[in-house]
Specification:
The protein is mainly β. Helices cover 0% and strands 52% of the residues.
Length: 214
C-alpha cells in the first residue's frame, strides 16, 4: 500500500493476485483497477516523478508504472532474492534502491536503466525497510536481524558505505554476565551466534563483537 503524492485522499493497494486498485479513502470508492502482471505485489513505493509508482513483484520484476496513463515507464529484473523494500534517493540523484529477503541492497541507475552498485549481506536477515533522507545523500535501513543502519552515498561507483549502526541480538540471549568490576559493562551472547558488550550508563559505548561463523 502507498499514497501517491498529489493524489488527494487516495491510496494504491497491491494484491496477491497481482492486481492493483486505486481507492478514494474519503468517499470509500474504487477509482481504478490496474490489471497488473499476474504476480503477487510485494512492494509499492511512489517515485520522485509525479504519477510514477515503483511496483516490486514476487517473480523478481520491478515495474515503474505511470498510474495516470496506466503505462509502464521502465522495467527491471531483480536476481538477488525477493524484494522486500524499496526507496528512491531524495537528493536529486536518479537512483532507486531495493532491499531483499537475503539482506542485500541493490542501487539502480534510472537514467542508464541498469544496476549501479550493490551491497551483499548489508543485513544478516531480510531487509524490512528502506528510507532515503530528503535532500541528503543518506539512507536508513532496518532488518529482522534487530539492527538499524545509516548509509552514506559517497563511494566512487555511486554506492553507499555504512556510516552508523545500532543493533542488538536477532535471537534471544543465552548468556549475560557483568564483565568488569565497575558493573558498567555487560557481556551478552545470543542464539544468533553474536556477542555484544552493553554499557549500563550510556548506549554510546555499546559494541558488537561480531558473529561466529556457522
Amino acid at each position: 500500500m502507498c499514497h501517491p503524492p498529489t493524489y488527494l485522499n487516495k491510496i494504491l493497494l497491491g494484491s496477491k493476485q497481482g492486481q492493483l486498485q486505486l481507492w478514494n479513502i474519503r468517499t470509500s470508492k474504487l477509482v481504478f483497477t490496474f490489471d497488473g502482471w499476474k504476480s503477487r505485489v510485494n512492494v509499492t513505493e511512489p517515485a520522485p516523478a509525479v504519477d510514477v509508482v515503483a511496483i516490486a513483484l514476487a517473480n523478481g520484476k520491478i515495474i515503474l508504472h505511470n498510474i495516470r496513463y496506466n503505462q509502464v515507464v521502465m522495467e527491471f529484473i531483480h536476481d538477488w532474492g525477493m524484494v522486500t523494500s524499496l526507496t528512491f534517493r531524495m537528493d536529486g540523484v536518479p537512483i532507486m534502491i531495493t532491499g531483499s529477503a537475503k539482506g542485500n541492497l541493490v542501487m539502480w541507475d534510472l537514467e542508464e536503466k541498469k544496476v549501479k552498485s550493490q551491497i551483499q549481506s548489508a543485513h544478516f536477515s531480510s531487509i524490512a525497510g528502506l528510507q532515503c533522507l530528503m535532500s541528503e545523500p543518506l539512507m536508513v535501513t532496518n532488518s529482522q536481524d534487530n539492527s538499524l543502519k545509516m548509509w552514506i552515498f559517497d563511494m566512487p561507483d555511486g554506492g553507499a558505505r555504512l556510516l552508523k549502526k545500532r543493533e542488538g541480538h536477532a535471537l534471544p540471549p543465552n548468556l549475560v554476565r557483568y564483565c568488569e568490576p565497575t558493573g558498567e559493562n555487560i557481556l551478552a551472547a545470543g542464539r544468533d551466534s553474536s556477542l555484544h558488550i552493553m554499557n549500563t550508563v550510556t548506549e554510546t559505548f555499546n559494541k558488537s563483537m561480531g558473529r561466529a561463523s556457522k
